[in-house]
Amino acid sequence: MSKIELLSPAGTLEKLKIALDFGADAVYGGVSHFSLRIRSGKEFSMEEFKEGIDYAHARGKKVYATINGFPFNSQLSLLKKHILAMAELGPDAFIVATPGVLKLAHELAPQIPLHLSTQANVMNVLDAKVFYDMGAVRIITAREISLKDLVAIKTELPDLELEVFVHGSMCFAYSGRCLISTLQSGRVPNRGSCANDCRFPYEMYAANPETGTLFKLEEDEGVGTYIMNSKDLNLASHIQEILDSGVVDSIKIEGRTKTSYYAATTAKAYRMALDDYANGTVDVDRYQYELQSLQNRGYTDAYLISRPFEKHDTQSLDFTMQLGTHQVCGQVNEAGTHFLCKYKTLPNDEMEVVFPLGSKVEIVDNEIGSTYEKDGRFYLKLKQLKAQNGKIWEEVHSGNINPITLPTSFPSYTFFRVGAHPDMGTYPKK
What biological-process GO terms show up in the record (predicted)? Predict the structure, then answer.
């Protein structure tokens, strides 16, 4: 079986580098409102996206450019210019969502491979064949598809690459085809500006139009009002089943708008899972230790392994977001010499170190601090919080922009974390 690709989100140039450094084989991201993340126009300039492509290619890795929005007629001229401009940057593929954009991209930039977005909702052999005949070399299947259906598609179309989501936010609607945000705020999800209205709490009412009577429906305590809030996908415990099928070419992580720590941790966890599978070993607890450290809406394995009607635990009804097992307290700069504080830090706090697989950090004990291993994990304690400008701080907090000196060099974008404190609570607070 060929090597399975690990595909991570790249919401910014920094996140692109982090995802690749922490184990991704490829990343996806975009520029402008033709990407399904409208903020990508602000977070990625054309120059930065080109820098990201060069960064990836220098490491033998890939970048896929998202042009997966649903354009208006008034935007078609601009879309053509955008496709040509993106093709000049040399990405490894375009991700597109509609038959028209796929055809247009194939005509304007025939040298760029085409991947069909999950927004196209491919669930069966018939639809897969239509897009394959139109020139799509890969299909990112709908999140609602089953592993059995993936096998059927691959059997019929063995040369078609299949990509599946294994981690990240799930949509209340059918693979993102939602109009709730459009209805409530005028922000169109399929053009990249979803307001995440499904994550809000709602009050339920019953109205009698004949009498004008309105009743509020009171809910039992603990049932909650987040009636459209899907849990987050987490298939790290099922990597063996997915890969044993022999039909998946790429596993994909959602999350371009999420944090740098998310980009690092998800890439590292699924890199471990893929490497362990290749080596004939599986350690689910190891992967979940990392993934449970992230903020999440509760986790579900959703529909790839189990059929939808068998699942009754895919919604978080009583909260929209909860903290993970750990709190990020620092992020190392690209040079590896200093870090920026992300959470209250005091001298002699024990911080777990999170760095890319295969990286090494020198064991030291000096006037700045010490590094050491314990129970198979790596830790850092700072004896003094010395800023780059020489100032000594008694404590540092999130928002402090003074780089803090490290006792030794660390890999670029290493993270420090501590166990989440009980009083940190859940968002929103109950």
Answer: proteolysis
